[in-house]
Design brief:
five-stranded antiparallel beta sheet; 22% strand; Alpha-Beta Plaits; Uridine Diphospho-n-acetylenolpyruvylglucosamine Reductase, domain 3; Uridine Diphospho-n-acetylenolpyruvylglucosamine Reductase, domain 2; binds flavin-adenine dinucleotide; 15 helices; globular; alpha+beta; 3 domains; eight-stranded antiparallel beta sheet
Length: 474
C-alpha cells in the first residue's frame, strides 16, 4: 500500500495559530526508521518536512497535503561529559530536557529561546537566538558537530572542519538541507542556579536606545516595549531587563539552586495564578483599550518599583512564557502572527518608531513588543546582523487579516530599505522578492547549490519554503 494512504493524518498549526495544514505523518524512533520513511516518501513523490515541537510561529513546520516527519520520539541524550560540558543528543531532545540533564553539574545551554519547548533539531534548523546574541552569538556558535541524513540517504558528519559549507547552511537552513539526527554542542559553565536581574522603566524609545548602548556589560539584555500607550508619546516606553550570572561570592545559594527543583517556574504572574493567566489575557486581548490598560499597569509597576538587583532562577528569567501554557489561545480564533524585523544599528530606532506609528495609525497595534540586540555571524542564511530586532505580536481576525498582511508587507519593505532582515521561525508574510532582498541573491544561490547536492529531487518542502520560493528561479 502507498505510504500516503496508509499513514495517519493530522491538522498541524504554527504556534501563532494563523496558519494550519492537514498532513500525513510519521514519528520515527531512530535513524534507520527515518531513512526508510524518506525512501518510501521519495518513491511515491511525497514531499517531506521535518517537525520538532511546532514552536515556530508561522508556516515553517507545516507541509500541507504532504508528509510531516515528527522528530520528537528521537529525544535521547547520547553522551554527556560533566567535566567539559559537551553533550551529544538526538534532535528531538528539548531545551527543557537538556538543561534538566546538565544543570546539576553546573552547565546551562549558552543560547536559549523564550520558551524551553523547542527541540535541538528545531534550534539548529532556525539557528535560534537568545537574550544574549550580542555577547555569545546564536545557537550555531556553540554547535560542535551535526549528523545529517539527506533525502538521498547519505549520512554526513558536519562541522567547521568537515563539510563546512553544509554546516554553515544547515544552521539556519530551516530543514531544507536534510534531517539533523545528532547534535553535539558545548554548554556554558555556571557557578549557580541564579542570575542577578535588574528591571527598570524608561519613558521613550530614545531613552531605551541609549540604555542599549551599555548592554555589553551584561550577560543578558532585553526590553519589553509598549506599542500602544495612551497617546502616541507613550508608545515606545519600555521595561528593561538585564541579568548577570551570579558569581559564587554573590550568591550563598548558588550551589543548591543548581538543583532542578529550584528552577520551578513561579505559580503566579503579577499576582494572577498561572493557570488563569491565559483566561485573563483573553479578556485583555479582546479590545485594544484593554491592552492599553494592561500595558499601563505593567509600565507603572516597573516605574514605581525598586531598580535594585534581585535573584531569579535561570528558568524563571528565560522561560516566562512557559509559565502560561495556553497563552496563544488568548488571541482568539484567528490566532496571531509574530513579525520580527532585524534592523542595522544605525537605523533601528527610527525604523522601529515608524513601525509602531504605522500600526497605531492603521488601527493594527501590536500587543507585544520585545527588543533584542545582535552581532553578525557567518551562517549562510543568517538573520543576525549588527543591530536590533523588534518582535511584535499582531492579533489576526477574519476582518483584519488582509489589511494586516498588506501592512506587514509594506513595513517589511521599510525594513529592507534600511538593510534589514527577517527570521523564518517568526515569519508568515514575506513574499519571494522580499525574502531575496533580506538574504541577498548571492547567498540564496549558494543555498540552492547546496540543495542541489543533498536534495536533487526536491523531496524537502515546507509551506514556508513554497511561500518564499526557495526553489523558484529568480
Ligand atoms: C513562546 C515562544 C518564544 C520563542 N522565543 C524565541 C526566541 O527568543 N528566540 C528564537 O530564536 N526563537 C524563539 N522562538 C521560536 C523557536 O525557538 C523556533 O521556532 C524553533 O525553531 C522551534 O523549535 P521546534 O523544535 O518547535 O521546531 P519546529 O517549529 O517544529 O520546526 C522549526 C524548523 O525546524 C525544522 N526542523 C525541526 N527538526 C528538524 C531536524 N531534526 N532536522 C532538520 N530540520 C528540522 C523544521 O522543518 C522547521 O523548518 C520562540 C517560540 C515560542 C513559541
Amino acid at each position: 500500500m502507498l505510504l500516503r494512504h496508509e499513514l495517519p493524518r493530522r491538522v498541524y498549526d504554527g504556534f501563532g495559530r494563523a496558519a494550519v495544514g492537514l498532513s500525513v505523518f510519521v514519528r520515527p524512533h531512530g535513524v534507520d526508521e527515518l531513512q526508510l520513511s524518506l525512501e518510501r516518501a521519495a518513491n511515491e513523490g511525497l514531499k517531506v518536512a521535518f517537525r520538532g515541537n511546532g514552536r515556530s510561529y508561522g508556516d515553517a513546520a507545516l507541509n500541507t497535503g504532504q508528509l510531516i516527519v515528527d522528530m520528537t520520539a528521537m529525544d535521547k541524550v547520547l553522551s554527556w561529559d560533566g567535566e567539559t560540558g559537551v553533550i551529544e543528543a538526538e534532535p528531538g531532545l528539548t531545551i527543557n530536557q537538556l538543561w534538566q540533564h546538565t544543570l546539576a553539574d553546573g552547565w546551562w545551554p549558552p543560547v536559549v529561546p523564550g520558551t524551553s519547548w523547542p527541540t535541538l533539531g528545531g534550534c539548529v534548523a532556525m539557528n535560534i537566538h537568545g537574550k544574549n546574541h550580542y555577547k555569545l552569538g546564536g545557537f550555531g556558535d556553540h554547535v560542535l558537530e551535526l549528523d545529517l541524513l539527506t533525502p538521498t540517504g547519505q549520512r554526513l558528519l558536519l562541522s567547521r572542519e568537515s563539510n563546512a559549507e553544509l554546516f554553515r547552511g544547515v544552521l539556519g537552513g530551516f530543514g531544507m538541507l536534510g534531517c539533523v539526527t545528532r547534535v553535539k554542542m558545548q554548554l556554558k559553565r555556571v557557578h549557580g542556579g541564579r542570575l542577578l536581574v535588574r528591571q527598570w522603566a524608561l519613558p521613550t524609545l530614545s531613552h531605551q536606545f541609549d540604555a542599549w548602548e551599555h548592554c555589553q556589560g551584561e550577560d543578558y539584555f532585553v526590553s519589553w516595549t509598549d506599542c500602544l500607550g495612551f497617546g502616541s508619546s507613550q508608545a515606545g516606553r519600555s521595561q528593561m531587563h538585564s541579568a548577570r550570572y551570579a558569581q559564587p561570592d554573590q550568591d550563598q545559594e548558588g550551589a543548591v539552586t543548581l538543583h532542578r527543583d529550584a528552577q520551578r517556574l513561579p505559580g503566579s504572574l503579577m499576582g494572577v495564578p498561572a493557570p488563569l493567566v491565559p483566561l485573563v489575557l483573553k479578556v485583555f486581548y479582546s479590545h485594544d483599550l484593554m491592552v492599553r490598560f494592561m500595558n499601563q499597569a505593567k509600565y507603572a509597576a516597573s516605574f514605581y518599583s525598586s531598580t535594585a538587583p534581585f535573584f531569579q532562577s535561570h528558568a524563571g528569567f528565560h522561560f516566562l512564557l512557559d509559565q502560561m501554557p495556553g497563552f496563544r489561545e488568548a488571541y482568539g480564533a484567528g490566532g496571531f502572527i509574530q513579525f520580527q524585523p532585524f534592523v542595522p544599528r544605525e537605523h533601528a530606532q527610527q525604523v522601529f518608531a515608524e513601525i509602531i506609528r504605522v500600526g497605531l495609525r492603521r488601527d493594527l497595534p501590536s500587543y507585544l513588543g520585545v527588543i533584542k540586540r545582535y552581532r553578525p555571524d557567518d551562517f549562510l542564511l543568517s538573520h543576525a546582523l549588527d543591530g536590533y530586532s523588534l518582535a511584535l505580536d499582531f492579533k489576526v481576525t477574519a476582518s483584519n487579516r488582509s489589511a494586516l498582511w498588506q501592512t506587514c508587507q509594506e513595513l517589511a519593505d521599510l525594513v529592507l530599505d534600511a538593510g534589514g532582515k527577517f527570521y523564518p521561525a517568526k515569519d508568515l508574510i514575506l513574499r519571494p522578492d522580499q525574502f531575496r532582498r533580506a538574504f541577498g541573491q548571492e547567498r540564496i544561490t549558494a543555498f540552492r547549490e547546496l540543495r542541489k547536492q543533498v536534495d536533487p529531487d526536491r523531496v524537502l518542502r515546507t509551506d514556508l519554503s513554497v511561500r518564499l520560493g526557495i526553489d523558484e528561479p529568480g
